[in-house]
Amino acid sequence: MAITDWPEHERPRERLLAHGAANLSDAELLAISLRVGVKGKSAVDLARELIEHFGGLNRMFAAGKTEFSAIPGMGAAKYAELQAVLEMARRALAEGMRERDAFSSPAAVRDYLRLRLSGLAHEVFFALWLDARHCLLAAEELFRGTLSQTSVYPREVLKRALAHNAAAVVFAHNHPSGRTDPSPADEALTRTLSQALALVEVKVLDHFIIAGQAPPLSFAERGLL
Q1: pLDDT tens-digit map of 22-74
Q2: Which of 2, 52, 128, 225 is most buried, with most CB under 10 Å away?
Q3: Long-range contacts of range 82-89, CB-CB < 8 Å, 24 or more positions apart?
Q4: Which pTM does this prediction carry?
Q5: Cα 187 to Cα 157: distance, rounded to the nearest angstrom
Q6: DSSP secondary structure string, 18-35?
Q7: Residue 11 and residue 118: Cα distance in Å, rounded?
Q8: What does the alpha-carbon distance between residue 41 and residue 52 come to, in Å, rounded to a whole number?
């Protein structure tokens, strides 16, 4: 049955307008973006299948165009629409961090990093460069690796810090394995970068590990900085 044939109070769009987006399920929210289903399936049915196929919203958004478009009923247009929604969410969070101390809203930092890194099948090393007031100057991927490791070069990190005239930085990397536990190599790298950046008066404020749906791990909160 098409959603247009549902009772009005059960339709996702009408439920959102009446009760707010937070009261809708993942499938209902996705269905609003999809707008229509396919033969024999409503948009909500299709949304549920998509989420189940990818194992969650994070992995669905991280999927490439070819993988996403291979799903019956999907295509390049749907892929572009969903990526646009995701990018707007990222930019909205980054905009807030540019306007005020990024750590005045720690949840925004975590949410932004999860949107950028969670669900990726490869490991990346990421930096949030901050000014003296801890407002965001730039967010950039510094290095990209394999499923198990990435090579991070302190000299290149220092070059980027100087290029942005940064006063502080927040590092982050993802664990595609889904575990947030820092490895001895993660801890050693963080110490090396902190010592190197201190020479040019750039303070490492934190280093986050992002892994799937798990809460991001903070090196600062763990006493690892």
Answers
A1: 888 888 888 888 877 777 778 888 888 888 988 888 778 878 888 888 888 78
A2: 128
A3: 82/33, 85/33, 86/61, 86/115, 89/115
A4: 0.68
A5: 16
A6: HH-GGGS-HHHHHHHHH-
A7: 30
A8: 15
